[in-house]
Amino acid sequence: xxxxxxxxxxxxxxxxxxxxxxxxxxxxxxxxxxxxxxxxxxxxxxxxxxxxxxxxxxxxxxxxxxxxxxxxxxxxxxxxxxxxxxxxxxxxxxxxxxxxxxxxxxxxxxxxxxxxxxxxxxxxxxxxxxxxxxxxxxxxxxxxxxxxxxxxxxxxxxxxxxxxxxxxxxxxxxxxxxxxxxxxxxxxxxxxxxxxxxxxxxxxxxxxxxxxxxxxxxxxxxxxxxxxxxxxxxxxxxxxxxxxxxx
Length: 247
Known about the structure:
Layout: E1 8-12, H1 17-28, E2 32-37, H2 42-50, E3 55-59, H3 65-79, E4 84-87, H4 102-130, E5 133-138, H5 151-171, E6 176-183, H6 199-205, H7 216-225, E7 237-240
Parallel strand pairs: 1-2, 1-4, 2-3, 4-5, 5-6, 6-7
Helix pairs in contact: 1-7, 3-4, 4-5
């Protein structure tokens, strides 16, 4: 609750996969949820409503400053402000570096990193005014080891981690925390099939918990970082990957 009212959580990339698990968990925790995605989010909305939650779907291209501004206006019109911002939308096309064009590089950076800039610029003022806010971004455990064929992706997620560390210093006095969650390869509609399918067994063998990661494995960490219990945690990256990366 904030000011005696239910808090509002905005989740980008919430139409499926990790974002859907995040949106559903935040709704279960009692938040009003705004699912922002370029894709149809009707299945996520139906899931939340079936469980008695309140949800609004907004079409949004997080790489576009104008589209994010439209998202902010929709959130403010419906719920007043965003209390919990989850920057989760991302892309991860596989290509060796020398086969990657500048246009492909910029597309990955615009969705995975620039979007965090646009979203924070849009929603931070309302959080500052309220004196409370939670920002959680999706990073990746690949930042710690690198991965051939995903250099732009890994670079973008490294940027997310750096962004989180630095912005924490600027917003902490306003009662706002910003953290990241770094998963391993997670089984979602976007990672099922094709070359990535071959990776699940290999990745599981690098983990202490030797099974494939699922979106539900990340929801608890998100719930905690969005809560009042995490009020003294900021600028951190929580690696949730079954023990593949340690330390």
